[in-house]
Specification:
Immunoglobulin-like, 42% strand, 314 residues, rod-shaped, mainly beta
């Protein structure tokens, strides 16, 4: 133990080839001189943590579950390090020329990785490499067509007509989620992932989780008609402002906006002027009419000398 780094050590070997115990009769081998190099103990270090070939910064998130950890240690043959997660050994790794590397599957959740020397004073790497493995964001990315007919008014929809809305709810990843439409005037999406028709065309709905994972789907929308109210006018005036809705379209409006007995300035009149023209014929000189407020139906004369009522036109 008195030998120091860089000091010399000479060794002389004598061997008796027979059974003689007389030293002078022994064969003397050449003196061998060695230079002492003390072992310098190196604390293990973690130099790289990768998932899918991408470096994972310390204290960050990843969706990769197969993680490759690389580091350094004392470059002496036969040395090993122990990879630990929160101080619990999970793998014993050979050190080759001062480098060690290991690939391991990590469960979803938080991890704190260190390397412990299985030699010398058993030093442990510092600081720990922290990462959180997240589950992948799950979202249906298949394109969808919303082709159901809807008469669009600037009012609250109470009952969406068939094939005019759907729910695309995200899961996995890191909640909460944020939903965004590239064109809310075509396809709108609310904070719960409910998508609905607004206009004809194509839009992209994208969801983000709190770790900034993102997925998207295409929405194709058709058969949306934007209608406007004419007020109380003769039939000819209503027809001059656009196509007057048919009787079936007025019934669709009643269902969609729950107008029956639901007060609204555009249809709440309980009297005759609460009737709406339709373009559906009811016989000579008359068309079907629908009272959006009280739900009754009848017929109205279109001639200008008869009473004016309301209309919806597109």
């Amino acid at each position: 133990k008195n030998l120091k780094d860089g000091s010399s050590l000479s060794m002389e070997l004598k061997a008796a080839l027979g059974k003689s115990t007389v030293e002078s009769e022994a064969v003397v081998f050449p003196v061998r001189t060695y230079t002492i190099h003390a072992l310098v103990e190196q604390r293990p270090e973690i130099t790289s943590v990768q998932g899918g070939g991408v470096e994972i910064p310390n204290d960050s998130n990843t969706i990769a579950t197969s993680i490759t950890i690389t580091g350094t240690a004392t470059p002496t043959a036969g040395q090993k390090v122990e990879l630990q997660d929160y101080g619990v050994g999970i793998a014993s790794i050979d050190v080759v020329n001062g480098i060690w590397t290991h690939t391991i599957s990590l469960a979803v959740g938080a991890h704190s990785l260190t390397a412990k020397a299985l030699y010398g004073s058993r030093q442990i790497s510092e600081p720990p490499r922290a990462l959180t493995v997240l589950s992948e964001l799950i979202f249906d990315t298949s394109a969808v067509s919303l082709a159901g007919p809807i008469i669009w008014l600037n009012k609250v929809v109470y009952v969406w007509p068939p094939n005019t809305s759907l729910s695309r709810v995200a899961s996995g990843g890191l909640p909460p989620y944020t939903y965004i439409s590239s064109n809310p005037d075509i396809a709108a999406v609310d904070v719960w992932g409910n998508i609905s028709s607004r206009g004809n065309g194509t839009a992209t709905v994208t969801v983000y989780d709190s770790s900034n994972q993102t997925k998207s789907c295409l929405i194709f929308v058709s058969n949306v008609s934007h209608a406007s109210f004419t007020g109380v006018v003769p039939y000819a005036t209503a027809a001059s402002r656009g196509r007057v809705l048919t009787r079936d379209e007025l019934i669709l409006v009643r269902t969609t906006y729950s107008s029956v007995h639901r007060p609204d300035p555009d249809w709440q009149d309980a009297g005759p002027s609460g009737n709406f023209w339709s373009s559906t014929s009811a016989g000579s000189g008359t068309v079907r009419s629908v009272h959006l407020y009280n739900g009754t139906e009848g017929s109205s004369f279109t001639a200008p000398n008869y009473a004016s009522i309301r209309a919806l036109v597109v």
